[in-house]
Amino acid sequence: MKSLKVFVVSDSVGETGEQVVKAVIAQFRPNFENTVIRRFPHIENDDHIKNIVEIAKAQDALIVYTLAEEKMRQKIHHSCQQENILSIDLLGPIIQLFQEKIDEPPLEEAGLVHKLDDDYFRKIEAVEFAVKYDDGRDPRGLLLADVVLVGVSRTSKTPLSQYLAHKRYKVANVPLVPEINPPEELFLVDPKKCFGLVISPEKLNIIRKERLIALGLNDDAIYAKQERIKQEIAHFYKVVERIGCSVLDVTNKAVEETANDIIERIEQNK
Amino acid sequence: MKSLKVFVVSDSVGETGEQVVKAVIAQFRPNFENTVIRRFPHIENDDHIKNIVEIAKAQDALIVYTLAEEKMRQKIHHSCQQENILSIDLLGPIIQLFQEKIDEPPLEEAGLVHKLDDDYFRKIEAVEFAVKYDDGRDPRGLLLADVVLVGVSRTSKTPLSQYLAHKRYKVANVPLVPEINPPEELFLVDPKKCFGLVISPEKLNIIRKERLIALGLNDDAIYAKQERIKQEIAHFYKVVERIGCSVLDVTNKAVEETANDIIERIEQNK
């Protein structure tokens, strides 16, 4: 297998470029075998570009670049051509297309997506909110949240809350356990904002067994027992019915997929 | 100002496409004025494409697509051409380039970036870790973490921890307050893993005042007093010196930028 080395060159942090490169590499090598992605952030002048192209040449790397200034894009394009390096201009063609459509010139400023504007602070606030009101820590959060997640353990409540926070939703989550009465606030929340997360008993059993083994415990500890799981899921449905909210099955689903589903439902209800 | 409507069409959730579109729109309208981005996830057949192209036509939208199958990419390309809709194939050209480079055929499977593989579970684990060990909740986390953040309040410790978690780093953070002795574990951590976060006293004062006003409190409450801030920062430097770790100034920096800086330092020390 040939080694694959990709340089992501950006005038900002290189976040966007890296995400695209990862999506493409996954199409060839889903486990990123024999593959290196290297980011070059804050690339702002000709010297930077010259250096990177030299390193790429020496290491036989591809270059994917996200540069706001057209002059810089042309510069790296020509340098790569001269040195016979395969390269891709990620933003340039889309910037041109958008310009054509709306008939406005681009600002050509680096790092505009990472601006410290209202939107940025909304995201930061949402991330902090989700940490603060994770795992039923403070039931007052339920009434302040845009989205409330309830579920048995191991249904990805925490990562899902964080993912939604990055999309600017304030999320609180509450674990449901038969022994503990759910907070009264849960039944005051608009059911359209609330989502019950469920997972198949078989899958839950596997996850818990793995967890127990990872903790060095005997895998037939009560936590993993089938009976117990059934009881928890029955309790879950009882609570969810009282709330009157939708239920999402997260079995074998990535957090991104469930989050997307929730966002669609929330936006439809607006 | 012309309205700008962009459809992001994906065979998976449309995450990557949306991020690129946002980066491009920010180059024209940093506050996304008069702009709509609409995601069409899980687009898997010709009928889906036909429908979307019709809606795009009716709404005068641009289409940006991320589709793994070449057949599907051709289909949407031709449909858009027929209907005179401006469109961009985001992944296609890069897939071709990579194929040329490594001489392997692409898998053409949707959603490979969202696979429930080891890497995915590492991310989930890191996100849960950061929530669990946020705000000095449990000092045992400090010895298990890949990265430890310490700082005075309002230095973005929580969102920074979460951002790094998405990059697979396990992060614990500890607030430093003169009244509370930092946990002893902090001084057992490898200083190369640890980062002190500092912010200019002026900026900290502004942030705190805003916070007090948002909470409906008088803005000259002790929390915001200049003297107090100086005292906190002096205490911060005393602790950081004892740890022997680097200090990063986060004043006016986006979380992404600071995170990038930390990742570079961590990777260099490996």
From TrEMBL, chains A, B:
EC category: transferase
Gene Ontology MF, one: ATP binding
Binding positions for ADP per the UniProt entry: 151-158
Organism in which the protein naturally occurs: Ureibacillus xyleni
Protein family membership: Belongs to the pyruvate, phosphate/water dikinase regulatory protein family. PDRP subfamily.
EC number per UniProt: 2.7.11.32, 2.7.4.27
Keyword annotations of the record: Kinase, Nucleotide-binding, Serine/threonine-protein kinase, Transferase
Protein's recorded name: Putative pyruvate, phosphate dikinase regulatory protein
Record field: catalytic activity: N(tele)-phospho-L-histidyl/O-phospho-L-threonyl-[pyruvate, phosphate dikinase] + phosphate + H(+) = N(tele)-phospho-L-histidyl/L-threonyl-[pyruvate, phosphate dikinase] + diphosphate; N(tele)-phospho-L-histidyl/L-threonyl-[pyruvate, phosphate dikinase] + ADP = N(tele)-phospho-L-histidyl/O-phospho-L-threonyl-[pyruvate, phosphate dikinase] + AMP + H(+)
Entry superkingdom: Bacteria
Function according to Swiss-Prot or TrEMBL: Bifunctional serine/threonine kinase and phosphorylase involved in the regulation of the pyruvate, phosphate dikinase (PPDK) by catalyzing its phosphorylation/dephosphorylation.
